[in-house]
Design brief:
It is built from seven helices and eight strands; from the N terminus they run E-H-E-H-E-H-H-H-E-E-E-H-H-E-E. By secondary structure, the protein is an alpha/beta fold. An eight-stranded mixed β-sheet has the order 3-2-6-1-7-8-5-4, with helices on both faces.
Length: about 220
C-alpha cells in the first residue's frame, strides 16, 4: 500500500498594516483578511484534513479558526510557527518612511535590514526541529532529500504561519538554506503551498521522497 503525507503551508490572511509592524502577536485580520479566511473554507471544502496547526499569533489563529470549525478540528498551536522576533529587523524611521505600508514584504528582500544572520539561523534550527518532530509523529525521519520510516496511513496536515516560518518550512522540504529562500521567495497573504511525502517505487532502501505539488496558490482558486 502506498501512503502519503500532505503538508499544506499557509501564510496568515491579510491584516491592517497599522497594527502589523514587526512581530506583534495581537494584530488582527483586516476585512480583506476575513474574506480570505472564508475563501480558505471553500478552497479546502473537498480536501480531507487530519490536523490544523497554527502559529500562536492572533492573526494566524483567526485565519484557520473558521476552517477548523467546518472540519470538526481543533487548532493546535505550535510556538515554532511564530513570526520572527522584532529584534531581528531594523525598524528605523528611515526604513519605515521608504517602505511605508509595504515594510513587511521589503524587509525580507534586503540584507541590510537583518540585524543578525545568526538570529535567522537560530530560527531556522527551531523550525527544522519542530518539523522533524512533526514528521516523526507520523512515522518519518528526514534524511537529506529522502525520508526513512514507515507510513501506516495517509495524513493531511495544514500549517499556518508567517512569511518567516512558511519560507523556512519550504526551505526545509526543498533542502535549501532559509536565507536563500528569504531573498528569493515572496509568500502572499492566505496563499497555500503543498508538499507531499510519499513512496517512490524506484527506491527500495529509502522509499520516501518529497515533492512540491504547487506553490503560493491563491485561496480563490478552488482545488
Amino acid at each position: 500500500m502506498r501512503y502519503t503525507v500532505r503538508i499544506f503551508l499557509l501564510r496568515h490572511a491579510h491584516v491592517e498594516y497599522a497594527s502589523y509592524i514587526g512581530a506583534n502577536p495581537d494584530a488582527s485580520l483586516s476585512p480583506t483578511g476575513e474574506v480570505q479566511s472564508e475563501s480558505l473554507c471553500r478552497y479546502f471544502d473537498t480536501v480531507s484534513l487530519d490536523r490544523i496547526i497554527s502559529s500562536p499569533f492572533k492573526r494566524a489563529i483567526q485565519t484557520v479558526t473558521r476552517l477548523a470549525q467546518l472540519k470538526g478540528l481543533t487548532v493546535d498551536v505550535e510556538p515554532w510557527l511564530r513570526e520572527c522576533d522584532d529584534e531581528m529587523f531594523d525598524y528605523t524611521e528611515e526604513v519605515l518612511e521608504v517602505y511605508g505600508a509595504e515594510v513587511d514584504a521589503h524587509l525580507i528582500a534586503s540584507w541590510r535590514h537583518f540585524a543578525s544572520v545568526d538570529a535567522l539561523e537560530l530560527r531556522e534550527q527551531e523550525i527544522h526541529k519542530g518539523l522533524a518532530q512533526l514528521l516523526r509523529k507520523y512515522g518519518l525521519v528526514k534524511n537529506g532529500f529522502l525520508y526513512d520510516g514507515v507510513l501506516e496511513r495517509n495524513w493531511s496536515i495544514l500549517l499556518c504561519g508567517h512569511v518567516g516560518s512558511v519560507v523556512t518550512a519550504a526551505a526545509y522540504f526543498m533542502n535549501l538554506h532559509a536565507i536563500h529562500c528569504f531573498l528569493t521567495m515572496h509568500i502572499a497573504n492566505a496563499s497555500v503551498s503543498l508538499f507531499e511525502i510519499s513512496r517512490d517505487e524506484r527506491l527500495s532502501s529509502r522509499p520516501y521522497r518529497c515533492w512540491l505539488r504547487f506553490w503560493n496558490q491563491s485561496p480563490d482558486r478552488v482545488l
